[in-house]
UniProtKB/TrEMBL annotation:
The keyword Repressor does not apply. The keyword Iron-sulfur applies. Ferredoxins are iron-sulfur proteins that transfer electrons in a wide variety of metabolic reactions. InterPro entries: 3Fe4S_ferredoxin, Fe-S_cluster_ET. Its cofactor is [3Fe-4S] cluster. It holds the Pfam family Fer4_15. Keywords: 3Fe-4S, Electron transport, Iron, Iron-sulfur, Metal-binding, Transport. This is Ferredoxin. The lineage of its organism: Bacteria, Bacillati, Actinomycetota, Actinomycetes, Mycobacteriales. It comes from the Bacteria.
Amino acid sequence: MRVRVDRDLCEAHALCIEIAPEVFDLGDDAVASCEETPPEALWPKVKSAASACPRQAISIVEG
């Protein structure tokens, strides 16, 4: 699985960073970025962050 942040949808609410700071970061352009293939142990946090995103800018891609 991979995680992606849609830069066009992200509004820098930063909930993802609060939930999974090991995976997500806020860039200088005020848009979240992420580690595309985080360790398996962090996936529960990644899924929580995706669910919490008010703009649904975080997607989890299988494969």
